[in-house]
Design goal:
17% strand, alpha+beta, globular
Length: 282
């Protein structure tokens, strides 16, 4: 009963992949979900964009009854933390509008095409670096060489990971990586290393699948989907920004959560079950 519409549930699974994603985003979570209640029955659902795998049964944008989701999460070895919305922020939400948006994207595949590009906002300062001193970082020069090679050897990977997203940024269609570098430098008069920094626009529609069938639709990773649910529900009012630029860290770093229910103010059940955790771990 404590979890309400719009609440954030952050996840990390210590399997290698999630920690790697969290490291690359500068985040402490590798996955994000949003709680939404049915406006008629009040049943609680967890909505998310994820992939089916050996530990998760359903692919793409989906909703799962909370009672089912929490069992699946426990079986999958999730660490799941609940962050409730501030009541004043929750009051802004139009639950009907949230479900209407959800109905337009349910079943769409996970947002592989845009996964990397919401992370990169600058030419050099957003690429992940390695411990212990974090002075050795991924650089554009690595990507500039690696991506054309990968695309040449495994064209499907290039198409899925960067090709369509970069063509959108340059307002081109069907160019491969070297052609896009040339177009950026000679036609647009911009350095090719700025291509990843161009803002991911929410209106861009990608070649993807819905319930396994080819469609053109939104490409959303988990944090982008959660942001879109908040945005379409009216949480951000008239603020004009692109959810495609959000990362896990960006989602949970927003000043929209109820701080009175965190730390010493978290519910008694959270304190009893996990007294030393300053957040409420589900």
């Amino acid at each position: 009963d404590l979890i309400q519409t719009g609440d954030y549930i952050g996840v990390i699974r210590l399997d290698g992949l999630d920690p790697m994603l969290a490291w690359a985003m500068g985040s402490t979570t590798g996955h994000t979900t949003i709680a939404v209640r049915d406006a008629t029955t009040n049943e609680l659902f967890v909505c998310e964009s994820t992939t089916n795998s050996s530990y998760w049964p359903t692919n793409g944008v989906q909703k799962t009854p909370y009672t089912t989701w929490i069992k699946q999460a426990e079986a999958a070895g999730y660490n799941a933390v609940w962050a409730p919305l501030d009541p004043a922020q929750r009051a802004k939400l139009n639950v009907t509008a949230m479900w209407e948006f959800f109905s337009t994207v349910e079943g769409l595949d996970y947002g592989y095409q845009t996964m990397l590009w919401g992370w990169i906002d600058t030419v050099a300062d957003n690429y992940p670096c390695v411990a212990p001193d974090y002075k050795h970082c991924l650089q554009w020069g690595h990507i500039e060489v690696l991506f054309p090679l990968v695309s040449e050897m495994v064209p499907l990977v290039g198409k899925l990971i960067f090709n369509e997203a970069w063509n959108f940024r340059l307002n081109t269609t069907g160019l491969n990586a070297p052609e896009m570098y040339m177009h950026a430098e000679t036609v647009l008069n911009i350095s090719s290393n700025t291509i990843p920094t161009i803002v991911e626009r929410d209106e861009w529609m990608y070649h993807t699948t819905r319930y396994g069938k080819p469609v053109v639709g939104k490409s959303m990773v988990c944090c982008v989907f959660v942001c879109n649910m908040w945005k379409h529900g009216g949480l951000f009012g008239d603020t004009d920004f692109n959810c495609g630029e959000m990362t896990n860290l960006d989602d949970y770093d927003l000043d929209i959560f109820d701080k009175t229910k965190m730390n010493d103010g978290r519910p008694d059940v959270c304190k009893q079950k996990d007294p030393n955790n300053q957040n409420c771990q589900l």
